[in-house]
């Protein structure tokens, strides 16, 4: 069994920086936080990271392969993140590009509780791409949001989630919204033989988040949405382990890490880490929408969420962020059936939500 | 009473972007997440943000003042962060430069439970600058870490904290480390009439973090360290409200937000937000150390932590990250007495930790 985790960093040294020194510094900064020489050889052997290779990778750029000892990481997600991109986040020109995950780390984190197959069972869809939408806008009351749930469930949307900005504002307090929206979706399911799910968004301070998630489960919800950038990644595994809920992860705030020369590659942060941390569904901003991901990145993300990985379940890529309903069949052909298409604004723009959702469902069922 | 929160963004539009459109987009993206026109006038009036001014602020740069309705924010820190820099984190060329905090938001968050005066009482120091150090390196066992505690407490260090990478690794499991280090510090306090504090670092998944913090309080610790970038900001107020502990906040991982053209200004994230979120002591990377903050930024940070702010307590700036012990008196003169100097490596490099700490304490007591 391996005793290390291998991380690959892209370095962009400043003009007065030496690439080898910059790589070596990472091995100290992320472990002992001491200058070289101010610790024993035993600590160097057991704890300090090790530069395996350093290669020129383009003008002014270098690729550093660094092995971190598992003894420095332990088995907790917080310290794993700390080692991968903790103090070095405060430096410059360091981008975590990839990680080779040891089986022991994968096993400790555990991955999705439901995964692709589990979500398909929950919504009763064997092979087709899945459809999700968001309840919006913030400012509507519980009754109005519940009416939207009814319309979307009738039209054949599988997963109807709160907009991620819905928390506990006076316009739609969490408890009232939960009861109204869940009842609306269950009523359509019962009347029309559907299996739509309502996913309340639960981020808050943890004690409140725990209460909201328990209330959701008690109301019959099978899945919820969280924003790990607000709550910390550990919220997802708590929802999996304590409540058995499926989790959709929202990327709010984490774009701060996606700089070209500094940060964490989106396929590592939204891909590998979200899946390892137990997300069953991972929202990311699709190409062509309101955000700046390109298609190769989206495809890498899809691969990270679905590829074989130490025996954990695949998660469902959930591209969103301005996907046009008319382009959905195109994306279904590109990305394949094990994808959730999250489409909001372009359904709302059509006015009759049931009809708009029905057309989308019909178009998607023809693909791929 | 005001019904809005004013946020100032620096915009760096791409060549094909219009600054006014970019500013207007923020008012929608951070609230209703819908294109203009796909919501009612009532929602626009009550929920959507409003561009107050947009000014040219340099070549290719603009300063946008945006008012967000408190009705869109509610009273929770998670949603406040969401509105300030949530989805727009996934875009480009948007930097949250400043926030004008309404009294109602300040009151809802509450600020430090102990603050500068409270920390001074805990360590028995009326006027002088305070001294902190870190237990390191990761890899030492509880007995070795406890010996270091003894040496630093004897030398006159006020606050002896775990290195932030110490979690629950086999080399020094949390429970063993807590008992050994706290006993060591209490023994020196009793024998030599000191009031040093041991601060265990508690980040982990929340249920574990709660257990660790309770164990720390039960062992007699009066303060702990957390890393809000790993746990979420809400951990700090939980420690304040549930356990009455003072909190030192560590900046690990949040450097991802500190890009020149995109992210959150350090004085907002580490300054205002940390203090509002209840941090009593806020670690930041001092100029001249291993990280890239310059002196004007450090001074802005100090000001944000200490300035009058809606009646909440001042917090203690805690510059660290490679501060040289010989330069500590210089920094004490620059930053003033209401500062904690966090000095690690440069004490360890001297070998005899008690003597090194004693010299530092002596030098600092002469200042300012």
Task: Give a description of the structure.
The structure is a homodimer. With about 375 residues, chain A is α/β, with parallel strands linked by helices. Chain A contains 16 helices and 13 strands. In chain A, strand 11, helix 13 and strand 12 (about 315-320) form a beta-alpha-beta unit. At the A-B interface, helix 2, helix 3, helix 4, helix 9 and helix 10 of A face helix 2, helix 3, helix 4, helix 9 and helix 10 of B.
Biggest beta sheet attributes of chain A: 5 strands, mixed
Computed CA radius of gyration of chain A, to the nearest angstrom: 22 Å
Outline the low-pLDDT stretches of chain A.
none
| H/E element order of chain A | EHHEEHHEHHEHEHEHEHHEEHEHEHEHH
Strand order of the largest sheet of chain A: 2-3-1-4-10
* Largest protein-protein interface: A-B, 84 and 84 residues
């Amino acid at each position: 069994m391996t005793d290390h985790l291998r991380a690959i960093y892209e370095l962009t040294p400043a003009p007065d920086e030496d690439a080898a020194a910059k790589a070596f510094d990472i091995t100290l900064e992320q472990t002992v936080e001491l200058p070289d020489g101010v610790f024993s050889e035993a600590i160097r052997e057991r704890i300090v990271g090790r530069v395996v290779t350093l290669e020129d990778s383009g003008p002014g750029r270098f690729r550093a392969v660094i092995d971190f000892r598992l003894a420095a990481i332990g088995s907790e997600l917080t310290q794993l993140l700390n080692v991968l991109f903790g103090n070095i986040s405060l430096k410059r020109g360091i981008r975590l590009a990839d990680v080779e995950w040891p089986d022991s780390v994968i096993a400790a984190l555990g991955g999705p509780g439901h995964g692709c197959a589990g979500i398909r069972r929950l919504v009763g869809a064997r092979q087709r791409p899945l459809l999700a939408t968001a309840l919006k806008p913030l400012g509507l009351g519980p009754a109005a949001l519940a009416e939207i749930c009814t319309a979307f469930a009738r039209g054949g949307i599988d997963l109807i989630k709160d907009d991620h900005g819905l928390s506990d504002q006076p316009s739609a307090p969490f408890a009232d919204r939960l009861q109204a929206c869940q009842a609306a979706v269950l009523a359509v399911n019962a009347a029309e033989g559907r299996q739509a799910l309502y996913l309340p968004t639960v981020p808050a301070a943890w004690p409140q988040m725990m209460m909201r998630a328990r209330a959701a489960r008690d109301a019959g919800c099978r899945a919820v949405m969280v924003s790990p950038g607000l709550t910390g990644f550990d919220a997802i595994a708590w929802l999996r382990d304590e409540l058995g809920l499926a989790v959709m992860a929202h990327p709010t705030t984490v774009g701060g890490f996606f700089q070209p020369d500094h940060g964490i590659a989106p396929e590592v942060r939204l891909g590998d880490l979200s899946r390892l941390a137990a997300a069953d569904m991972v929202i990311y901003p699709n190409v062509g929408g309101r955000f700046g991901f390109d298609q190769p990145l989206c495809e890498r993300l899809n691969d990270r969420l679905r590829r074989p990985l130490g025996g954990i379940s695949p998660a469902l890529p959930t591209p969103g962020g301005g996907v046009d309903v008319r382009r959905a069949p195109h994306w279904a052909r590109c990305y394949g059936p094990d994808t959730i298409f999250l489409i909001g604004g372009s359904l709302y723009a059509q006015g009759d939500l049931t009809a708009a959702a029905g057309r989308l469902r019909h178009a998607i069922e023809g693909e791929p």
